[in-house]
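Hello,

I think I submitted the zinc ion job twice by accident. Can you confirm which output corresponds to this input? Input:
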Amino acid sequence: MAKRRIIKCISCGVYNENLEFCKNCGAVLSFRKRREQKVEAQKKKRAEVLKMQPPNFIENLRSHPNMVYRITGAFLYSSFAVVSAIGAFIAWLVFAIAAG
Ligand SMILES: [Zn+2]
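Support: Only one job matched these inputs. Its output is below.
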């Protein structure tokens, strides 16, 4: 006979029996599953940050015939590179702390 495992949903307070997800609101009930999901979400977020590309208008500015626009484009492009590098670093840091 299987052991009855009743878990109270942390999100809506409904009691669920032998379920991994809340029957009422769909929240994840088991602690292990929650942790797995958290790690998955962080991996996804990290991949997104690393995939980040500068917006199109910056690329347009960089190939603009007017030099002032080109310089602005180059400036925005390097700012973007710095921002995404910091973002990637923070994402890595958060992941490293959570995984550790
Ligand atoms: Zn619930």
